[in-house]
Amino acid sequence: MPDKNRREFIKKSTLAAFSAALGTEIVFGDHLPVDLLPIGLQNDELVRKFGKNPDLTVLNDRPWNVETPPHLLDDPVTPASNVFMRNNGRIPSDLDPSTWILQIDGESVVKPLDISLNDLKDKFQSYTYQLVIECGGNGRAEYYPPAKGNQWTTGAVCNCEWTGVRLKDVLEEAGINTDAVYVAYYGIDTHLSGDPDKVVISRGIPIEKALEDETLLAFKMNGKDIPIAHGFPLRLVVGGWPGSVSGKWINRIRVRNIIHDGPKMTGDSYRVPCEPVAPGTTLKPEDMCIIESMPVKSLITYPKTGAVLQNSGSLSIRGHAWAGDYLVKKVEYSIDFGATWSECQLDNPPNRLAWQRFSARVNFPRAGYYEVWARATDERGISQPMIVPGWNPKGYLNNACHRIAVKVL
Ligand SMILES: Nc1nc2c(c(=O)[nH]1)N[C@H]1C(S)=C(S)[C@@H](COP(=O)(O)O)O[C@H]1N2
Ligand SMILES: [Mo]
Questions:
Q1: Is residue 133 within 8 Å of 226, Cβ to Cβ?
Q2: Which of 61, 76, 197, 386 is at a distance of 20 to 30 A from 338, taking alpha carbons?
Q3: How confident is the model at residue 2 (pLDDT cuts 50, 70, 90)?
Q4: In the structure, which protein residues have their CB atom closer than 6 angstroms to any atom of ligand 1?
Q5: Residue whose CA is closest, atom 21 of ligand 1?
Q6: Ligand 1 pocket test: which of 50, 230, 248 has the largest number of ligand atoms within 8 Å of its C-beta?
């Protein structure tokens, strides 16, 4: 078939499939650009391709970036169907775990290694932890002047149970020199440009974080193979730090004797002004610092915002709180826009770097409109701000208090 006819044929059959899925004709379908997914089908694709909950919010399908509404984060351990998706490039396909090799190399490695996935599982002890992964850009939508990028609201966070081997055990096997300062990852996803030589993202963590017990080379999420979208068959999981250091589909770990300089380590990427600046300020690269531990934060996961209370002035609320590398020491709620606060019941985390459940019984004095605000404080005494914190060019680290609306009849 000549190219043009081929394209026409693909377009016709795609259109027919789209129409069937939508249950109606796409009027003007002739004008639908090739490769453009109708928004009416985004959530169907999400369910069909990735097994996701259809009520997740699609921010982008090229690449797939999808967030989770707060009430779908109510479970202590986030089910795979409700985990947000953040991709900088194309999600790989044709992944074969039986031939998967992880390469360990870099300036500061004593004995470079190629380890098969099977050997990784057999030769090292496995550990399981609940770990919070939150995208550095979670909350970006609220910054002004606006920051480019996916307009995450509150849903680029999850707390899954990860099983894998400790990065430190594998690094010990390879041996690391005393000049090691950073550990970086590389994955096999491809650049949106289609250029196979372009690395999508390669970030890293200081050696001290890499050697923590909870830093995992994970091959299971919630007790099952990691879903393809989340990094099957092998991903790095670094709890409490921006999600971008938890590399997916990884096939290489590189131990550096300098701060890693891969794509998305420099410039405005995952870096914020070292000192607070006025919104909209232009910054020099040397005035920007790499994000490390994420700030203290909380999310009300029950009830859903907009709840209506019938004939009752009392409501049980609950949610989760987390604080990067630190423990959450206190969570409070307010029903008077932050004028006064009352303490919530707060659970200990099941392990370090997992989120913590909070709950409270809230009494409303009379009928009317209320907002419930939640505010967490970490073990250092640092609390969430009530409004959007320090502006930065890419809109990272918004940990403002979460608010829900409640109407009491
Ligand atoms: N290889 C690779 N790893 C990656 C990314 C990516 O685009 N490619 N995105 C990162 C970012 S920015 C985040 S927030 C998390 C998101 O993980 P998830 O999609 O499993 O929720 O993966 C990180 N790891
Ligand atoms: Mo991210």
A1: no
A2: 76
A3: low
A4: 83-89, 133, 135, 187, 189, 200-201, 230, 243-244, 246-249
A5: 85
A6: 248
